[in-house]
TrEMBL record:
Lineage: Bacteria, Pseudomonadati, Campylobacterota, Epsilonproteobacteria, Campylobacterales
SUPFAM superfamilies cross-referenced by the UniProt entry: Ribokinase-like
Enzyme class: transferase
Coiled coil: none
Alphabetical list of Gene3D superfamilies matching this protein: 3.40.1190.20
Gene Ontology terms: cellular component: cytosol
Pathway recorded for this protein: Cofactor biosynthesis; thiamine diphosphate biosynthesis
Name of the protein in its database record: hydroxymethylpyrimidine kinase
Gene Ontology BP terms: thiamine biosynthetic process; thiamine diphosphate biosynthetic process
Residue span, Pyridoxamine kinase/Phosphomethylpyrimidine kinase domain: 11-250
Length: 264
């Protein structure tokens, strides 16, 4: 069985962070392991408190997993502090397996998930990534990206690593669509799906990048992994259990099952 490691924060409400990552790995029959960077006290309405795990203990978790299992890919989510970023750079630099970095900054409800002084440092991890998956706000903070400004798109093409900008709403054939754009090796590739008007989108970013990591671990190409994961998220939203009073979680298990059925 394939083993994947997620280095990320814990979401007590189970829909985002480590919990979303493990559920997404499981949805693709991958054995998920974790190194927890922060604990959040949160629910579907927001993040109430953040408790940081110190960098040496995050490292101890990573080493415990890597020294015992043959890990086939790593997903990186909320890192929070410069100390954790520095430690994670040392860990991933010598590895030769797929690494997907979701540069988590701000939660859907607006809470800060990365210290302001750590944004530039986070970028130093990107040369070691197979893929970096920012949303448009994160892409703006990291690269000055603005969808409306073609000169910033041109800049994206020059980056020495692959970036997928997630979930921009566009009009396509007179309907709203969700667009992901891959900037890789000087070229762009677009992935679209139906835009879903749902309140149940908590943790979609984490789940999407974890599904991509799982599929890379299974040996799928980057393009196939993105396509499959986009369908997984759409189905997860469609069958969401509608929990909580705010932005509810998606249905990882059903999303995975329906997605596998569609693939066969
Ligand atoms: O979806 C971003 C995210 C990542 N990681 C953790 C989170 C959140 C959003 O709330 O709590 C731990």
């Amino acid at each position: 069985m394939n083993v994947v490691l997620s280095i990320a924060g814990s979401d007590s409400s189970g829909g985002a962070g480590i919990q979303a990552d493990l559920k997404s790995f499981e949805a693709f029959n991958i054995f998920g392991t974790s190194a927890i960077t922060v604990l959040t006290a949160q629910n579907t309405q927001g993040v109430n408190e953040i408790y940081e795990v110190d960098a040496p203990f995050v490292k101890a978790q990573i080493e415990a997993v890597l020294s015992d299992f043959n890990v086939s890919a790593i997903k990186i989510g909320m890192l929070y502090s410069n100390e954790i970023i520095d430690m994670v750079r040392d860990v991933i630099a010598p590895l030769d397996i797929p690494v997907v970095i979701d540069p988590v900054f701000i939660s859907k409800a607006g809470s800060k998930l990365l210290n302001d002084d750590a944004i530039a440092n986070l970028k130093t991890l990107f040369p070691y990534a197979t893929l970096v998956t920012p949303n448009r706000f994160e892409a703006h903070a990291l690269f000055g990206y603005r969808f409306e400004d073609p000169s910033t798109l041109h800049k994206m093409l020059k980056l020495p690593y692959k970036v997928l900008i997630k979930n921009e709403t566009i009009e396509l054939n007179d309907r709203l669509a969700s667009l992901d754009t891959l900037y890789a090796e000087g070229k762009t590739e677009r992935f679209t799906s139906e835009s879903l008007n749902s309140k149940n989108t908590h943790g979609t970013g984490c789940s999407f990048s974890s599904a991509i990591t799982a599929n890379l671990a299974l040996g799928k190409t980057l393009k196939q992994s993105i396509e499959i994961s986009k369908s997984f998220i759409s189905l997860g939203i469609k069958y969401a259990p509608n929990l909580g009073h705010g932005t509810g979680p998606i249905a990882h298990k059903i999303g995975g099952e329906k997605c596998q059925l569609a693939l066969n």
